[in-house]
Each structure stands twice: as C-alpha cells, then as structure tokens.
C-alpha cells in the first residue's frame, strides 16, 4: 500500500528533480532540511524517525519497572542513567523529525492514539532482574546493529542524531552484559533466571529487525534513498553471528535447537522467529501493549498542568519585562 | 535501545517547522562550547517554555557526559537562514577569488615552509 502511494506521488514530481535528487544521494552528499526532497522521502522519514523516537520513549517503561527494585545502589544508579539516555535519544530523534515539518506534539498525539507504532519488543514484560541484563545485552545489542549503519543515512539531521545515539549505546549493551555475567556466574537460582531471561528475549530480539525483506514493501525505495542501509535479513544474521558466541561465553543456551555455526557460509544457521506472533503484537495483541500505551497517555495527561503552567509563567515574565521597559 | 522496524501505519499530519501551536512549547536551537578556546557549535534543538528552561533542558539533553562548558539557547523562530536555492549567488563571489587560498601563490622551494 505504502509503496504504491510513494510511486503515485513520485510520478507527479518533476522527473528531472527526482533524478538530480537521486544523483546527490548516490554521490554520498547529505540532504538537509531546506533542500528539495520528494514527498515520499519526507513522509517515509517522518514515519521512520518518529517510530524510532517513540521506541526510545516507550522503551523506558520496561526498564523503568526495575529502577526502584535494583539489587544495589550502584546498579540502580547505572539503570537510571541508562533510562535517562533513552529519553535523550527520543528527544534527539523528535528534533530530527521536526526538521521535516511535523511537530513533536503531533507525533506524540499520534503515538498516544495508536496511529503511530513503536518497536514491538517493548510490548513484552520484564519479569525479573535478569531481564535488565537480557534487555541491555540483546535489545540494545539489536538496536546497535540497526543504528550503526544509519549514521551514514542520507538525511543530515537523522545521521547526526544517530551519531550521538551510537556513542551512548555501547554503555547500554555493556551494562546489560555485565548483569548477565554476574547472574550466569551466580547461584543456581540466578543462573536459572539468566537462562529464563534469554529464553524469553531471544526471539523478540530477532523480530526487532522486522520481517524478511521478501515481505517488506518499502525496502527497495528506502535503500535507494539511503534511509535504510541494510536489509532486515542481513542485520538479523549479523546479530546472531555476534550474539551466539557471547551466549556460549556466558554458559547459557540459546533457545534454538537449530542454531549451529555453518562452516561453509561462515555464519550461524538459526530458526526464524514466529512471525504470526510478531504481527499479533504489532496489531496490539502483545502481552503489554495496553499497559504501555496507557502509561504514556497517563504521563501526557498528568503532565498537562506542568506544560501549561510553565508556558503561562513564561508569558507572564515576558509581559512584565515589556512593561518594565 | 529501540530500533526502527517496518510496519504499516498512516502518515502523520504536517505542521510548519518553527511555529508552535498555542499550547506547544517553542523550539530552541542549542549551541555548545565543547572546551575552552573553541567556538560554540550547533548540537541540536529542544522545546522549552522560556530561555531559562531551555538552558536547563539543554544541560540534561546535550551534556550528560561532560560535552560542554557553555550553552547558548536561541529561539528557532529568531534564526535567519540562507536558503539552498541561493547557494550559487551567495557563495560565487568568494569562489571567484581563488587568491584567498594560499595555494594560489607559488613560493620557490628555496624559501622553505610558508
Ligand atoms: Fe539504549
Ligand atoms: Fe536508545
């Protein structure tokens, strides 16, 4: 559907301008906010950056769940800093989206109404402290796979936001792996918790890269525009190749009996996640969809008096300053 | 955390950049001096009700890891920018004057580094 729309819009645009635009991208130059761009490019970017921003914001919820119950003060401070970073990532990305002509409040309203999506991974619950390890290690790990190549994306503000984000992400993954190491080398009960967290987060992490490219309608155009730098399958393979030896190091078992290093291809063979589950979660039927959206709506509603109060205060101060002149 | 993934949903409504609706906090562009001796550099933007809050928010959003020693916040609506279409005429005069670049002058090797 969406790919069709891009096409029909593109056909109304000046073919010469479209070609010049594509040439600029092919030559590796960055597109900046005030430059001419095809409508489909602008809309796809708003959708992608907005969805990414929402994911950073909603992604604070599963980890925020454990801030008050972290096992030590140090772990609590680390988790708090990590979750604060995610808020920052959301803000960098909203700013990048805003340069395309959509307002942050509009994007927020579209998240709150369910019109825009966020990453399906955050619709899974975090049941034990070991989940903080699994989330940092696997979920941030998968996010890094996606984000590193996006530092070279064709849209300047998006690429620059990605550079900032990537600088901060490796702390996230490392703190998660550190938790996993502690748990995996701990008591039997802690080991079981670590294994259980890996069991629950493995396939949802693989889903983070999206369905196979054979089924992805907007892949091709997005890759030509350098909005998407790799196919979903390429990134998923890279993630498995990187993560499987790490699980082995931890002495944990990846919940996939077909996971095996393939000497011939030089990559791991692995099982696909259950895509029916993925589409169900996307549709709103995951374990925490309702809870997550309700939490975001509540935060927005409860914060309204603060937003309006500060605006009123700023206006009052401005008027007083004018009167004093 | 998080990553973009392909999933179908509708487009979002567009708004004019830089002109907030009545209930929205205005947009501020943030400039940070990384270290003493360097100029302020644009790092991004944020929303805040006034200048004081813009600087406080900038501290949290853009300097969580000692990235700066000084912050400027400028309301985005007050920034005048050249438009890309002017690129040619705006920069041509200086492109003509190649003698502004040191490589325009041939200095004999005997003179040494200059
Ligand atoms: Fe992260
Ligand atoms: Fe993040």
TrEMBL record, chain A:
Descriptive protein name: 1,2-phenylacetyl-CoA epoxidase subunit A
Enzyme nomenclature, EC number: 1.14.13.149
Transmembrane segments: none
UniProt keyword terms in alphabetical order: Oxidoreductase
Annotated GO MF terms: phenylacetyl-CoA 1,2-epoxidase activity
Name of the gene encoding the protein in the UniProt record: paaA
Cellular component annotations (GO), alphabetically ordered: cytosol
Gene3D superfamilies documented for this protein: 1.20.1260.10
EC top class, as a word: oxidoreductase
From TrEMBL, chain B:
Domain of life: Bacteria
Family annotation (Pfam families): PaaB
Entry's EC annotation: 1.14.13.149
GO MF, any single term: phenylacetyl-CoA 1,2-epoxidase activity
Biased composition (Polar residues): 1-10
Keyword set, alphabetical order: Oxidoreductase
Keyword Oxidoreductase: yes
Segments of this protein annotated with the region Disordered: 1-21
Presence of the UniProt keyword Metal-binding in the record: no
Descriptive protein name: 1,2-phenylacetyl-CoA epoxidase subunit B
Organism the protein comes from: Sulfitobacter aestuariivivens
């Amino acid at each position: 559907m969406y790919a069709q729309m891009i096409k029909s819009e593109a056909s109304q645009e000046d073919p010469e301008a479209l070609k010049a635009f594509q040439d600029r991208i092919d030559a590796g130059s960055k597109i900046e906010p005030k430059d001419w761009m095809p409508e489909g490019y602008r809309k796809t970017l708003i959708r992608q950056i907005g969805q990414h921003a929402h994911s950073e914001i909603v992604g604070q919820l599963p980890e925020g769940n454990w801030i008050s119950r972290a096992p030590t003060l140090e772990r609590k401070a680390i988790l708090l800093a990590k979750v604060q970073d995610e808020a920052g990532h959301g803000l960098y990305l909203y700013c990048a989206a805003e340069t395309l002509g959509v307002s942050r409040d509009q994007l927020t309203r579209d998240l709150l109404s369910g019109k825009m999506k966020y990453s399906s991974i955050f619709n899974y619950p975090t049941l034990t402290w070991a989940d903080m390890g699994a989330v940092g290690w696997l979920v941030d790990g998968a996010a890094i796979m996606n984000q590193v190549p996006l530092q070279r994306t064709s849209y300047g503000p998006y690429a620059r936001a990605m550079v900032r984000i990537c600088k901060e992400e490796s702390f996230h993954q490392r703190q998660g792996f550190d938790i996993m190491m502690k748990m995996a080398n701990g008591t039997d009960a802690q080991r079981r918790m670590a294994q259980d967290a890996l069991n629950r987060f493995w396939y949802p992490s693989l889903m983070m890269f999206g369905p196979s490219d054979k089924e992805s309608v907007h892949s091709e155009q997005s890759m030509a525009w350098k909005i998407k730098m790799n196919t979903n399958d390429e990134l998923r393979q890279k993630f498995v190749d990187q993560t499987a030896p790490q699980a082995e190091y931890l002495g944990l078992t990846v919940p996939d009996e077909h996971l095996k290093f393939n000497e011939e291809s030089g990559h791991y063979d692995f099982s696909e996640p259950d895509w029916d589950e993925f589409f169900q979660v996307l549709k709103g039927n995951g374990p925490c969809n309702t809870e997550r959206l309700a939490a975001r709506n509540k935060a927005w509603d409860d914060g309204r008096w603060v937003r309006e109060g500060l605006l009123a205060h700023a206006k009052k101060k401005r008027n007083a300053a004018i009167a004093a002149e | 955390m998080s990553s973009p993934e392909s999933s179908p949903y509708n487009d979002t409504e567009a708004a004019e950049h830089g002109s907030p609706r009545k209930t929205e906090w205005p947009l501020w562009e943030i400039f940070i001096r990384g270290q003493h001796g360097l100029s302020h550099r644009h790092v991004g933007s944020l929303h805040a009700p006034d200048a004081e809050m813009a600087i406080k928010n900038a501290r949290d959003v853009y300097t969580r890891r000692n990235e700066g020693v000084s912050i400027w916040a400028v309301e985005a609506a007050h920034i005048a920018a050249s438009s890309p279409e002017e690129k040619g005429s705006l920069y041509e005069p200086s492109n003509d004057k190649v003698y502004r670049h040191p490589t325009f002058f041939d200095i004999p090797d005997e003179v040494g580094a200059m």
